Amino acid sequence: MAQTQNQKDLAHARTKTSFDVSNMTRYLYAGPENVEQRRYIIDLIAREPIFNKDDWAWLNHTDAVKRGIAMSARLAEIKMEHELNDLDFATMCEIIDDTLPILLHNGAFIPVINSQGTDEQIEKWIPLAEKFQIIGCYAQTELGHGSNLSQLETTATFIPDTDEWEINSTSFTAAKWWIGGLGALCTHAVVQARLSINGKDYGAHVFVVPIRSLEDHKPFPGIEVGDIGPKAYGGFNKMENGFARFHKYRIPRDNMLMRFSKVSRDGVYIKPPHAKLSYGSMVLLRSVLIRQMGQYFSRATTVATRYLTVRRQFNNPTQRNDSDLNPDLETQVINYPMVQNRLFPMIAQSYALFAAGQVMMEMYIGLMTGLSSGDIAALAEVHATSSALKSYCTTIGAAGTEECRKLMGGHGYSYFTGLSHLFASIVPSNTYEGDNYVLTQQMARYLLKEIKIAKVEPEKVTPYSKYLLQALDKNAFGRTHCSVTRPEDWLNPKVQLAAFEYRSARLAFELHDAVEQGGQDPAHLKTWSDHNIECYRVSHAHAQYVMVRWFIQSIEEAQNSEEEERRLQSPGVKVLESLSHLHALHTMQTNLADFCEDGYLSPSQCQSLRAQVKALVASLADEVVGLVDAFDHPDFLLNSALGAYDGNAYQRLWDKAQSEPLNRKEVCDGYEEYIRPLLKKHGELKL
Amino acid sequence: MAQTQNQKDLAHARTKTSFDVSNMTRYLYAGPENVEQRRYIIDLIAREPIFNKDDWAWLNHTDAVKRGIAMSARLAEIKMEHELNDLDFATMCEIIDDTLPILLHNGAFIPVINSQGTDEQIEKWIPLAEKFQIIGCYAQTELGHGSNLSQLETTATFIPDTDEWEINSTSFTAAKWWIGGLGALCTHAVVQARLSINGKDYGAHVFVVPIRSLEDHKPFPGIEVGDIGPKAYGGFNKMENGFARFHKYRIPRDNMLMRFSKVSRDGVYIKPPHAKLSYGSMVLLRSVLIRQMGQYFSRATTVATRYLTVRRQFNNPTQRNDSDLNPDLETQVINYPMVQNRLFPMIAQSYALFAAGQVMMEMYIGLMTGLSSGDIAALAEVHATSSALKSYCTTIGAAGTEECRKLMGGHGYSYFTGLSHLFASIVPSNTYEGDNYVLTQQMARYLLKEIKIAKVEPEKVTPYSKYLLQALDKNAFGRTHCSVTRPEDWLNPKVQLAAFEYRSARLAFELHDAVEQGGQDPAHLKTWSDHNIECYRVSHAHAQYVMVRWFIQSIEEAQNSEEEERRLQSPGVKVLESLSHLHALHTMQTNLADFCEDGYLSPSQCQSLRAQVKALVASLADEVVGLVDAFDHPDFLLNSALGAYDGNAYQRLWDKAQSEPLNRKEVCDGYEEYIRPLLKKHGELKL
């Protein structure tokens, strides 16, 4: 069959890419072996009929949950058949492109037992879980409590007579809520409940609670359990998020996970040695989210870039128009500067997110290595960094995905872009694992502590807070100015980092001063919450600084790698450097007031910054299709009529419409019942 | 039954409101008669079982479309039974809270015939349409063309022999696409097609095209028609958006609407007297969208305000905690400054949108009165204003609705907030009726023309562009400074308006200079598209100015009204003034770089602006529940478990979950088939 114009346009765009796309892919995934492993996993999934996505658009929640259960079971089998590890399992879940109830089994149930169970408990539960002889979930959130763990209302009361815990939902709002896998799939749950002995409350602890019979899957007496209903935007449709109320439900004492806190047979409570040891799992969850955000957001930019390359609208003869193709054709939408200036910075952000995900995971692994030998020195910085980045990255990832969808104009509102499904899956990450606003308090608190340290023991300031030192001289603020004089100065990474460092330091010190002042002036006494808006600003400023720094760093490393397969060849490096500049300068432009309100940037610098952003955007016009190809997302994953690799957007959109079940009938359901009586109300009409 | 704590909290919050809520409602709807009429319409709808929303969460697209057809038919009957006018019909559609295929019959089919048909054509078609003996839709967009009307690929070729038009989809991408009502419901369509006589192309014209037989509703031979499939986020689920391909399909010559252009029996084409006469309908559609945005967005702020008033999280003893209720309770989430500073400015925006919708509709009516007597003087300004405001208002309305949903934290991701359905319905307005980015070129072009006029005939500058005059002295920029010296100066509407005027003028003149320069320097020749980013900034700056001005103006008018029923009593006026200040200053803060990058605001003014916004937010804490009650949205409309009037959020969320169809079974579908085999793969397990 002859190529459509759409296909020609995308193929033609690919000829212009200046760099080797495969090499770029190896850079993004930190080496060829990771690229190969991901492709191997994709192939495992894509060939299985149960993971076919063709009818997803038409499933209601009831049917979708059943599908989710079937997919979950098959996923478990594949994991066992191919002896895949947890990282591969996570990759499978990403490729499947829907959140399944089995996810929490490997993502939370097993890790919690592994980290909080004693050796005996691990030996008892983990082999069963690994072989899926039991299926678990993680039950923390309640109807009345999410963020505030210490006020959970589920209790676990020690019953000395029988050596048991009595799990109880003390009130209506104590019902566990939102628990993935609890509504239908799981046999067991690890449940957060407030431990109580002899009327004394010891706070939240973790218990392994059998939920459904291994005989017939019926919920045990004393547990009221079910699905909480559909989610926003049709998101998590195949996930059954469950609720559970416990009515004085008994479990053995030994089902409390006792690696840290313990309760003896005679009801004596033994405190954990270090209260923060469980922070590791929070850091992991947030680091994974940051890494995922690169995956997710890059899918959105891939789809938008391809579709906007093949969509043509208006013949704008003075506009760059690929006249080597055919001067009579309308202009490709991607050639409009407005479109480029919205889209290309998001491609740069996607790349920055890949780099951030990589470094964050390395930081986490370093932390865990330290912790395992009792070294908690890095904990505070890593925890704060993962919090700040989780908040920032998931915010821009969700908002950017919706922006990509809107960039696609009218057809962007079709389900068949794939992007509404993607957004619906991403956006809860803005509120779970720490609400993105509440979470920013972590980094703010951390920086305030670092300021105190900087004043007395400057050598102890941690690597990513070193910029605070420059600012110990109070006169720095309002008197420091950006050094840019010529447009090309903006392309100096040192200049970029200096700007982000100065701005973060200024905001951190302003917060510091406000907190000190607020605590001292009795007439205007302020509490921590009064500063939370500023915490948000400080934390995002720091996160942006870290993102800019890590992206720059990852390019330097790729350039200087001694291993040829990891090394980025020119001109790939040139393109990456342009992306990094664009990422830094566009982020600055988007938050311009922070940089200019105290005169750090002068009026003419603001103007030249905007001009430089536009110039960088324009310079990437021939590269963007290659840049998104390098993300290596196969059509199966994108599931997008408009963003497929071949660019055949209109044909695919047409074909999708033909598969619409409504179109199987020549006359629609409801005609005889509703339409005909209306049309004939005033008698027969002949026209 | 005893009140739940949730109910107590909301009831208690209501006792604090300082103003009369009913009086505020009358202000919002511009008089008691409008409030009454709206309530009458709500009652008509809410009592009909077919409009019940209880099972909406579980309908797939197939079932939803059938429901949409049933609802459409009933809506038509109610309109006839109660002899409702088009405005009432539009209100009904808003109350129903879903976009139905019948909407385009009264919203586009009838208006297009009325405005573009000859008297004879109106006499022929309109009575049939009014009695729903035919049902129509409006077919403009094609698979390959949306924004660019002039390149539509559907043709209407005159066939002299039979005195007919041959409607033809000349290519694959000529298929009409996205056409509401075309997929299943309609019998007729008004179709935009390029008129061709004797091989000569006369551009797009409008034709009445029979689609389905009045006998049996089957599509006529030569028309390939169907539904294009589901939409993003489950939006427009009950709407069938259709496609159609015409295969040399014949209709009588007289089916061309000939009020302006005409074609005679012998194939002579007669041009319309004035090309812009059809702008009126575009202005109307955009004005309606602006008015709707107040309705929609205020529903989101209502739901969020009520839920955040009853949600309690963390016991923050130093935080304002309604200790008159019970000091042991956790803090109401709405009492956290971070939450207030996100939510309250959106309540202010909702009020500003109500005011803007009101004034915009008045402007439209004024324009039409003028046009009907041949006066086109106001056309350009009204058209540009409606374009700029449509772009700005639908952008903040959609983004704000999603922000309200996220403000609700974890439970915000439940379908039962009602807000995801709302967002899914609002967000296509960002791309239809003129893409929000493309549309900003209208206002930019207009302001550039006004600058030219200002230079030669300053007295001819239109009312909303008068601010350009102050800036004719080029030295004004970079040397003008905001007059604020004391915090209370920010509360002067003149100061606020001066800031918005100065900023708009600066951006408009910068654009003007760039366009002049770009056209002159051959080395850096720029086209209009190169300036589109700046057009966007200019247009939104102007839109914000107009919004601030209209909100201020509407309060002044309410205060000075001679009719007691329309007049706002103190302290209602005080609260409204605070809202207006907050709206203006928060908008300024959100776009701070525009105001400070050239030194118009000094560093200390930036600081004091932020402080003033915080102070205004804090001052509204006791008023917000009353302010959202005043929107007068009944529970039927909100369809929100979390935002109902009684505040009983947890109970309603629980009840909704119990109605989940999945929960009818003790053991889920798929257990025997998928879960059991997995659990038993390694043999029976006894625990």
From TrEMBL, chains A, B:
Keyword match Membrane: no
Pathway listed: Lipid metabolism; peroxisomal fatty acid beta-oxidation
Keywords from the named record: FAD, Fatty acid metabolism, Flavoprotein, Lipid metabolism, Oxidoreductase, Peroxisome
UniProt-annotated location(s): Peroxisome
Cellular compartments per GO CC: peroxisome
Stretches assigned to the Acyl-coenzyme A oxidase N-terminal domain: 20-135
Active-site residue numbers: 433 (proton acceptor)
Domain Acyl-CoA oxidase C-terminal residues, every copy: 492-680
Cofactor requirements of the protein: FAD
Annotated InterPro entries: ACOX_C_alpha1, Acyl-CoA_ox_N, Acyl-CoA_Oxase/DH_mid-dom, Acyl-CoA_Oxase/DH_mid-dom_sf, Acyl-CoA_oxidase, Acyl-CoA_oxidase_C, AcylCo_DH-like_C, AcylCoA_DH/ox_N_sf
Chief localization: other
Residues binding FAD, per UniProt: 141, 180
Example of a GO MF term: acyl-CoA oxidase activity
Swiss-Prot/TrEMBL catalytic activity: a 2,3-saturated acyl-CoA + O2 = a (2E)-enoyl-CoA + H2O2
Family: Belongs to the acyl-CoA oxidase family.
Annotated protein name in UniProt: Acyl-coenzyme A oxidase
Organism from which the protein derives: Podila minutissima
Gene: ACX5
